[in-house]
Amino acid sequence: MPEKSSVDAVVVGAGPAGASAALELARAGRSVILLERGPFPGAKNVYGGVVYGRVLDEVLPGWWEDAPVQRWVTRRSTMMMTPTQALTIDFRTEDWGNAPYNGMTTYRADFDAWLAGKAVDAGAQLVTSTVATELLRDAAGRVVGVRTDRPDGDIRAELVIACDGVNSFLAKQAGLLPQTDAEQHTLGVKETLALPRKTIEERFGLSGDDGADFEILGCTGDISGGGFLYTNRDTVSVGVVLSLTGLAKSGRRPEEVLADLKAHPAIAPYLRGAELKEYSAHLIPEGGYRSMPPLTTDGLLVAGDAAAMCLAAGIWLEGVNFAIGSGLAAGRTAAEAIATGETSRLTGYRKRLEDNFVLTDHKNLQGAAHLVLSERVQQQYPRLLCDFAQEVFTVRNPEPKPGLGKLFRRTAARHGVRLRQLAADAWAGFRIFG
Amino acid sequence: MRQYPDMSFEDRMDTVDFEVGQRPHITVDSDICRSCTTKECVHACPAKLFVPTGDGGILFNYEQCFECGTCYQICNKAGAITWTYPDGGHGVVFRKG
């Protein structure tokens, strides 16, 4: 690494947001250093299911030809469960198994390294095994670079883009993010388990490069959260996502909550005989739009998880695509600002995000996290729906079949669910998701 | 009570790669921990890095840290847990994240 180097921009964190920002800057002809604290991009990263690559169409046409894909998701299930029941909406389509594809499963060590490689191909300088320890400021307080943990490792730059993840110490240091904010975060814990490729395809009903992704509600006991199960080529990944405050209060260990999900009668048959290849954990900024920090300050832009751009909205669980989307926007804004010399005016960044899916989706779905993590959606409704399904499908000859409306009202009453509350939540859900 | 016999926690952690650094990137002030009655870090840490001691303090290990941040996010006692990233190139290395 050049000592006391001076570049147009320094991007901190070579995850999807950072790699995308560096790609845009390099393509605009700007000198850019992409800093990564791990030994390679992706070494510190964990995700919970699917990477949606559509956002790459514009910058990497045909990206699916060489992206490090495990499987293309052609089967998507939403499962609501109680300790002994599961009600699943199961969807599959061949369309998602053909170009341009919808979503892929991947290993982040592969995917992030691949995307960072695209930035390097475009001219960005990737520097790994280096932590950005603090922001450098000039006398006026403007951010003018970062200090690193290398000897003589100050890097001066016109602009800094912080893509340093969910714990972004740079955004915290800049006063954009609070030091701690447990209520807006969940903990994801995951096991990646080896199974023969053929076994995976038989159990999940897949063939070729097709893959399955299950999202699960009601599988985390007293702790708000959810679960997931998805297929890779010759491994499956299973995990739970736990509200930090709920986990703190519960007295339970994360891997025990995950063990309960793995032992569930609807999940266990998929995992029988599988061997643990890697246990992992990562925080997720699930607070959404309402917990987002200011996205810029003088000389600094924030993108990806550092800007809380994970979408946890019930049927939509996305993050890598928002990281890429915000990274591209930050890179474009930075390149323009450097070109015009107006590096203090970075308002174009927010405008860009509002004009595309990143802030539009987050803004539209801003109430979702609150609703999805509510006790009713977490506990009452899965029990109600599973019991209702059981009542509907239980045959009680010679007693005649009851009307579904009556059955539903009876089941709701048994679970203490007031129909007025259910209607209110349905209306709230319609307003959020409609 | 459900049993969790699938594997020992030590075997579980053996599936994860770590490039252990010299510098502990977590430090814990046991004097502050002694006044904490709940000690959420002990059960919530997914890598089980925090162990209560007989005198009410906390013993910790930084070597097998996932760098998730759960401990400092949920800690109720200001200044009890000091948490940074490990030095560049060190710490957890996920291969299948």
TrEMBL record, chain A:
PANTHER family named in the record: ELECTRON TRANSFER FLAVOPROTEIN-QUINONE OXIDOREDUCTASE YDIS-RELATED
Keywords: FAD, Flavoprotein, Oxidoreductase
Keyword match Flavoprotein: yes
Name of the protein this chain belongs to: Electron transfer flavoprotein-quinone oxidoreductase
EC number per UniProt: 1.5.5.-
Domain FAD-binding residue range list: 7-351
Domain FixC-like C-terminal: 375-432
Domain of life: Bacteria
Major enzyme class: oxidoreductase
Record-stated family: Belongs to the ETF-QO/FixC family.
GO molecular function: FAD binding; oxidoreductase activity
Cofactor: FAD
TrEMBL record, chain B:
InterPro entries: 4Fe4S_Fe-S-bd, Fd_FixX
Domain 4Fe-4S ferredoxin-type: residue ranges: 24-55, 56-86
Transmembrane segments: none
GO molecular function, one term: iron-sulfur cluster binding
Pfam families xref list: Fer4_9
Organism of derivation: Saccharopolyspora phatthalungensis
Domain of life: Bacteria
Keywords for the protein's UniProt record, in alphabetical order: Electron transport, Iron, Iron-sulfur, Metal-binding, Transport
Organism taxonomic ancestry: Bacteria, Bacillati, Actinomycetota, Actinomycetes, Pseudonocardiales
Gene3D superfamilies associated with the record: 3.30.70.20
Name of the protein: Ferredoxin like protein
